[in-house]
Amino acid sequence: MNSTFVILVGLAELAGLAGMGLTITWMIKYLGGFGWDGYAKQFNVHPLMMTVGMIFINGNALMLYRVTLSLNLPRIIVKFCHLGLQLLAAGCGSIGLAAVFGFHKTIGTANLYSFHSWVGLATFIMFGIQLLFGFLFFILFFFLLPRSENLRGRFLPIHVFFGKMILILATITTCMGIQEKAMFAMADKYKDIPVQALIAHAAGISFTIFTFIVMYIMSNDSYKAQSRRDGYHLQANST
After folding, report:
1. What is the pLDDT of residues 53-108, one digit of tens each?
2. pLDDT tens figures, 93-146
3. Can you tell me the distance from the alpha carbon of 110 to that of 223, in angstroms, rounded to the nearest whole number?
4. What's residue 238's pLDDT?
5. What's the pLDDT tens digit per position in 161-173?
6. Exposed, middle or buried: residue 179 (CB in 10 Å: 0-12, 13-18, 19+)?
7. What is the distance between the alpha carbons of residues 92 and 90, in angstroms, rounded to a whole number?
8. Non-local CB neighbours of 232 within 8 Å, separated by 6+ positions
9. Secondary structure E strands in the chain
10. Torsion, CA 42, CA 47, CA 53, CA 58, rounded to 10
11. What is the number of other CB atoms lying within 10 angstroms of the CB of residue 63?
12. DSSP reduced 3-state for 230
């Protein structure tokens, strides 16, 4: 594991943690904090859970194969860790969606009225489909259909592509949501760029930097595992 890779991963983690920290600061200091009361505090759970799950945990799940490469772990162990992170991301996302739908129900507002909500829901559905097919091809088929290696190999580029696209879409959706919430929360004061707006914008930029670095790591061939086939300890060239 070279020093450039370590620095990139470290910068990605710092950017992701900064985004979450700024989001929490925005929610607590300016928007009333968190709760499950059906009102504003419940809504605040939505941006936190969606960014933690769909960006930070999801992005780390994508980098997992690169980060664990030098550890020489059995491939199946890394697969289960990847699956565990994705399930955790799905759980966070589900809580985030439940929070916003419950909030809208309480205040009598229609769901899915904004472009942000359309793209966000589509992204989460894609994530669910990706999770399901990933489990089928790379976990279930691995044990039940051990001779399906060629099939799994053909599906792998599709899985990797949609994994990247889902993270990008999640980040775009987050930035749209930050803009939308900032305009609602600050109204006419937004144009004066108050501190609250700076915090919100900085959160969006932090998540964007996180995603940018993750995409670079995922797209750099020098950080990929080399093709190695020695039975149970299987490494695929494209992950």
Report:
1. 999 999 999 999 999 887 888 888 999 999 999 999 999 999 999 999 999 999 99
2. 999 999 999 999 999 999 999 999 999 999 999 999 999 999 999 999 989 988
3. 45
4. 39
5. 999 999 999 999 9
6. middle
7. 5
8. 74, 75, 76
9. 228-230, 233-235
10. 170
11. 21
12. strand
37/44 Cα distance (integer angstroms): 11
- Give CB contacts under 8 A, 24+ apart, made by 12-18: 12/59, 12/63, 12/209, 12/210, 12/213, 12/214, 12/217, 13/60, 15/206, 15/207, 15/209, 15/210, 15/213, 16/55, 16/56, 16/59, 16/60, 16/206, 16/207, 16/210, 17/56, 18/202, 18/203, 18/206
Find tokens 């750099």 and name the residue: 220
The owner of tokens 């399930």 is 87
Let me know how long the chain is: 239
Q: Where are the alpha helices (DSSP H) in 68-148?
A: 75-107, 115-135, 141-144
CB 223 within 8 A of CB 9: no
